[in-house]
Amino acid sequence: MDDPNARIDPGAIKHPGWTAAGVIVMLAVIVAGVVLWARGSSEAVRISEPSLGAPVTLDGGRTAIPVEATIANQSDEPIRVTELKVDVLSSRRVGACFTAPPEPDTVTGTYSVALPMQAGVPTTGVTTVPYTAEVPAGTGGRLAFTVGPQTQDAGTVIVTVFRPVVVLDDGAELGLPSVATATTPEGVQRYVDGVQALTAAERAAQSACAGGELATFDDVYGTSSLQDEPLKRLRESYTELAGKN
């Protein structure tokens, strides 16, 4: 980066979350956190309280889990966010370990960061989008954004591991650790309901399918710091079906 003070520190936080497209809630306090970038010897930007938020509704009625984090501005100048970068580390479909009825609908949503697709899943690499927010001097601001595929089959669950980066107006970057999400929450619930509806004989027949998918979940958990609740529910359901609990 051009600014020698700017740096990415992907391990400094545990995770972020956001509401739909570019929401920032200003806080009246300075929030303690990990210094990721400093303007000078007496001025610092801190980021803390990473989390995954409650579901928010996208256009079309589907929901998404937002990534959230707090930026605390301890300087005497405002901090301006201009872009979001999302580096997709991996993305894959989760096999349906039950007899899934046809689901022809295509899901499209207005995610804050809509990831380009290849072969039905988000492509690996960096996607950059404009994102405008400001944290006044001596205050803190809560950032929130959603990340998801540009489009996907309604009947398919896609698990994506990505690392977000918040870009400031002077080119400095605030890096967040990796996040794993399962889209869509409605699709996940369909999978969970399908597994729960299996008879004893069907569960025995699908056990190997679920066991194979657990390797995917293990890899996702091993490469992410935060996982959303739909992904956790799906992993628990498949663990039970595979007889691994």
UniProtKB/TrEMBL annotation:
Which of UniProt's keywords are assigned here? Membrane, Transmembrane, Transmembrane helix
Kindly list the residue ranges recorded as spanning the membrane.
Answer: 20-38
Q: Which domain of life is it from?
A: Bacteria
User: What is this protein's record name?
Assistant: DUF4352 domain-containing protein
Q: From which source organism is this entry?
A: Gordonia caeni
Taxonomic lineage from the root: Bacteria, Bacillati, Actinomycetota, Actinomycetes, Mycobacteriales
